[in-house]
């Protein structure tokens, strides 16, 4: 049996941009992506703590050490600059493997989204 479990989480980052005219995705500071073990193109669930919105898109890397968190395309309508988000990815794995799996959890500085 396979189960879906949390693979990685970036906890409480602030939206730095919302670009409606981009083709889609979420731009994430590449340092945060590395720390959370998220790869380019990976599906990301976005939970908006300010308005309760939940949506899914895919990750693209932003400039390192920039703190960038930008929602692109239609997702830009679901956030406002300054909103606090939780970013989550999931993985499917064997039930026994899942029992011992440890997700990558990242808690950046809430003011600037940088790793502390």
Automatic annotation (TrEMBL):
Gene3D superfamilies tied to this protein: 2.40.40.20
Gene Ontology CC annotation, any one: cytosol
EC number, as in UniProt: 4.1.1.11
Record has Signal as a keyword: no
Major localisation: cytoplasm
Post-translational modification as stated in the protein's UniProt record: Is synthesized initially as an inactive proenzyme, which is activated by self-cleavage at a specific serine bond to produce a beta-subunit with a hydroxyl group at its C-terminus and an alpha-subunit with a pyruvoyl group at its N-terminus.
Binding of substrate, residues: 57, 73-75
InterPro entries: Asp_de-COase-like_dom_sf (IPR009010), Asp_decarbox (IPR003190)
Cofactor: pyruvate
Top EC class of this enzyme: lyase
GO BP term, pick one: alanine biosynthetic process
Assembly with partners or alone: Heterooctamer of four alpha and four beta subunits.
Family of the protein in this entry: Belongs to the PanD family.
Name of this protein: Aspartate 1-decarboxylase
The organism of origin for this protein: Croceitalea dokdonensis DOKDO 023
Lineage: Bacteria, Pseudomonadati, Bacteroidota, Flavobacteriia, Flavobacteriales
Gene encoding the protein: panD
């Amino acid at each position: 049996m396979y189960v879906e479990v949390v693979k990685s989480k970036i906890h409480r980052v602030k939206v730095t941009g919302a670009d409606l005219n981009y083709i889609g995705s979420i731009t994430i500071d590449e340092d945060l992506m590395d720390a959370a073990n998220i790869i380019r193109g990976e599906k990301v669930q976005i939970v908006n703590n300010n308005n309760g919105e939940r949506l899914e898109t895919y990750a693209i890397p932003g400039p390192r050490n920039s703190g960038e968190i930008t929602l692109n395309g239609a997702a830009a309508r679901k956030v406002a600059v300054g909103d606090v988000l939780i970013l989550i990815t999931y993985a499917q794995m064997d039930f026994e493997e899942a029992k011992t799996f440890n997700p990558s959890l990242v808690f950046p500085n809430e003011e600037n989204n940088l790793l502390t």
